[in-house]
């Protein structure tokens, strides 16, 4: 029998529900970002997309995500995670329906913008919701469920694309997401709010009830006292975060993680992997199927990360992943810019390099960035800080994804060389700037000295 993903189960169905629904938000995040990879092969012909329009259709989701991530911080402070994620599910449903019925490029762009708002809110607040409801000793494993569901959502989108490749029905590729979107709306109606949000808003009995669902009875009151000590301070604005050195340092850590996750090139692989394989001579269905297989490897890597993240720590996995990704990106660039691209050996090398990249990303910078960002932010700045960090993440994603098809036309080696350099920067950031947060409670992390360099 396979081992369970988390070392220990929550103590109540409500805690499982909170974790599962937060992860479902990430499933939709993954599906709606990945579905364009297969759909684009057929949208390109139906709407006669130029490279610029192609970049717009892909990247407008990222504009919406940047806005959704930023606005979600203020909304979650006011309304809580439960209501925010219900609203996010409604946006997912609406965007998928508009995309499935889109009569023109303009309507499709609108649908992608609406989906982006939902993706941004989910990426910022679903992880925060899980982090604030999970037990301290298993927070990394539980939080890693969300990126696991994200990679699963991407895989499902690829498989749906492969199943529909022969018919070219890209509209159905989008429509499939309506079902899990409605499940998110319905499920959040029964889910608890974060105990930290409840305590911050004076709902002490409700916070205690949620804690009883995740902790042994003897630990409930001590944990509640720690939460009340931290949440007594009022929530802060972005300008306050910039003025206060401790908050500014935490914000720079979170935004650094968010920025580096994108500039290492992951979403060029997520969005354009089938296109890359098509450029190497693969048939459309073969390109999508190969991408699906590689995404399955990514899921296995995320499961490995979830099993070991609380024992191995965040920083060692981030450093190892950065090195492996640099090697794989250098190989992809070499194959695509030389005559190897037209040979069987080149095809094998390209597939192996993409596989290595996706596996390395999925046990390091994929799940662990979303795990670590809320950990390094103090409670009073967590909602705002996650919104700003998510904005940073999606804006970097936008720049990379919009420019990739244009830059790729001018030469693969230079583009992938930039990504290799970004991986080296990511290694240095994890090695010398980022503090270790594994096996430390959120309250204890907040009480640490904000030294910019970890001890060795």
TrEMBL record:
GO terms for cellular component: membrane. It is found in: Membrane. It is a multi-pass membrane protein. Keywords: Membrane, Transmembrane, Transmembrane helix, Transport. InterPro entries: MFS_dom, MFS_sugar_transport-like, MFS_trans_sf, Myo-inositol_Transporter, Sugar/inositol_transpt, Sugar_transporter_CS. One of its GO terms (molecular function) is transmembrane transporter activity. Residues 18-438 form the Major facilitator superfamily (MFS) profile domain. Belongs to the major facilitator superfamily. Sugar transporter (TC 2.A.1.1) family. PANTHER family: PROTON MYO-INOSITOL COTRANSPORTER (PTHR48020:SF12). The chain crosses the membrane at residues 21-43, 55-72, 84-103, 109-130, 142-160, 172-191, 250-273, 293-310, 317-336, 348-373, 385-408, 414-434. This is Sugar porter family MFS transporter.
């Amino acid at each position: 029998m396979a081992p369970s993903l988390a070392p220990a189960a929550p103590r109540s169905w409500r805690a499982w529900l909170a974790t599962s629904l937060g992860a479902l938000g990430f499933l939709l995040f993954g599906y709606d970002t990945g579905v364009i990879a297969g759909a684009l092969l057929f949208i390109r012909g139906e709407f006669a997309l130029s490279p610029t329009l192609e970049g717009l259709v892909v990247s407008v989701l990222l504009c919406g995500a940047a806005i959704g991530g930023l606005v979600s911080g203020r909304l979650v402070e006011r309304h809580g995670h439960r209501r925010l994620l219900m609203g996010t599910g409604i946006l997912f449903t609406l965007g998928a329906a508009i995309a499935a019925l889109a009569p023109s490029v303009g309507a499709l762009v609108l649908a992608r913008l609406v989906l982006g708002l939902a993706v941004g809110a989910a990426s910022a607040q679903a992880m925060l919701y899980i982090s604030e409801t999970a037990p301290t000793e298993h927070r990394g494993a539980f939080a890693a469920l969300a990126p696991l569901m994200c990679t699963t959502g991407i895989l499902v989108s690829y498989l749906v694309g492969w199943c529909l490749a022969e018919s070219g029905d890209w509209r159905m590729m989008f429509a499939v997401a309506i079902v899990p979107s409605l499940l998110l709306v319905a499920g959040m109606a029964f889910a608890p709010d974060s105990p930290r949000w409840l305590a911050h808003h004076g709902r002490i009995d409700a916070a205690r009830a949620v804690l009883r669902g995740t902790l042994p009875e003897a630990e409930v009151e001590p944990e509640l006292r720690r939460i009340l000590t931290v949440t007594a301070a009022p929530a802060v604005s972005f300008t306050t975060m910039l003025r206060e050195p401790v908050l500014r340092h935490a914000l720079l850590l979170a935004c650094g993680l968010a920025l580096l996750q994108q500039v290492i090139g992951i979403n060029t692989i997520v969005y354009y992997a089938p296109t890359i394989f098509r450029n190497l001579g693969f048939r459309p269905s073969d390109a999508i199927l190969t991408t699906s297989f590689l995404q399955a490897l990514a899921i296995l890597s995320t499961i490995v990360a979830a099993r070991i993240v609380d024992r191995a720590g965040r920083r060692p996995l981030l450093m190892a992943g950065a090195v492996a990704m640099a090697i794989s990106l250098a190989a992809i660039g070499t194959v695509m810019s030389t005559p190897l691209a037209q040979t069987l050996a080149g095809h094998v090398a390209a597939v192996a390099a993409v596989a290595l990249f996706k596996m390395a990303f999925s046990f390091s910078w994929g799940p662990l960035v979303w795990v670590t960002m809320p950990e390094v932010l103090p409670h009073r700045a967590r909602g705002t800080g996650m919104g700003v960090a998510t904005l940073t993440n999606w804006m970097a994603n936008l720049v990379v994804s919009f420019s990739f098809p244009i830059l790729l036309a001018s030469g693969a080696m230079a583009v992938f060389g930039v990504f290799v350099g970004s991986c080296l920067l990511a290694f240095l950031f994890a090695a010398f700037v980022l503090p270790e947060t594994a096996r430390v409670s959120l309250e204890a992390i907040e009480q640490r000295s904000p030294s910019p360099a970890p001890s060795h």
